[in-house]
Design a protein that fits this description.
This protein is of the alpha+beta class. It has helices at 28-42, 57-71; strands spanning 2-7, 15-16, 26-27, 49-53. It starts with a strand and ends with a helix. One of its GO terms (cellular component) is plasma membrane.
Length: 72
């Protein structure tokens, strides 16, 4: 299981970081691409993605589009 905290990012691009801590902010789309590229090569089992979503509706739509385009 993978767990991510998603927040509104700049330029309508959601970001992932552990809220209110000193973690590095990374783009949601980069994380989804990495999951797609590596998670299914190392294990025959499905991946469960737990999303703690703090994004606006507009950026939630961006997240949905990224996942649809990446995972199919």
């Amino acid at each position: 299981m993978l767990s991510v905290d998603c927040w509104d990012g700049p330029e309508n691009d959601p970001i992932i970081y552990h809220g209110y801590t000193l973690t590095t902010k990374i783009l949601f789309r980069d994380v989804i691409k990495a999951i797609n590229e590596y998670a299914f090569k190392t294990s025959p089992y499905p991946v469960t993605l737990s999303i703690e979503n703090h994004c606006s509706l507009q950026q939630q739509q961006v997240m949905a589009n990224v996942m649809n385009l990446t995972f199919g």
